[in-house]
Each structure stands twice: as C-alpha cells, then as structure tokens.
Amino acid sequence: MADVNDKTNERISSIVNGADVVLFMKGTPLFPQCGFSNKAVAILDHCNVAFDSVDVLQDMEVRQGIKAFSDWPTIPQLYVKGEFVGGSDIMMEMYEAGELQTLLDEKQVAKAG
Length: 113
Description:
The protein is globular and about 40 Å long. Strands 2-1-3-4 form a 4-stranded mixed sheet, with helices on both faces. The longest helix has 15 residues, at 2-16. It starts with a helix and ends in a 7-residue tail after the last helix. It has a single domain (2-106), classed as Glutaredoxin, CATH 3.40.30.10. It has helices spanning 2-16, 35-47, 60-70, 88-97, 99-106; strands spanning 21-25, 52-55, 77-80, 83-86. The chain is an alpha+beta fold.
C-alpha cells in the first residue's frame, strides 16, 4: 500500500508544481459539483488568473491523497506556485481582505485569457 501512497504523492506533487495556480475541487470550473468549489472558482475568476483544476471526484486516490498531502481535511484546496494556500473559506477571507490578489501579484501568476 505504501507504493500507492508514494505514487499518489508523487502525482499530486507533480500536479501542484506543474502550474502556477492549481485548484483541487469537486467537479470542473464549468460544472462545479459543490458550493465550496463553485465559490473557489468564482474567487479565482474575479482575480483574473489562469489556473489548472483537478476534479477529485474522478480520482479517489487523489481525493484522499490530497488531504494527507496538504494536511487539510477538506476540498477544494488551492495551491499557488507549489504552496498550499487553503480551502474556500480561507480563499474568501484572503480575497475580501485583498490578500489573495496581493499574493497572486507577488508570485507573478499568469493572468487569465
């Protein structure tokens, strides 16, 4: 079983480090499957950043593995330049305070479009 966990961690690590912004979510940006994922997508859209998404409903290993990888129990999860930022509540707090846009600007994240 350790091999599966190691492989899953390697996969997650390569996803997280493969794009400036990655959102692990339920569903897709066009069809979020939960309110929290929908909120997270809306926040990133408002910030006008390009982001990759991973639908954890399509991959149970990643769905469980991401929780251990970040030591965070819920989904969605946002990563910026390989660093875990938080879930939808933290994203909303940071967005409302202007901190999320500042973080994205400081990390020189690519804009959407």
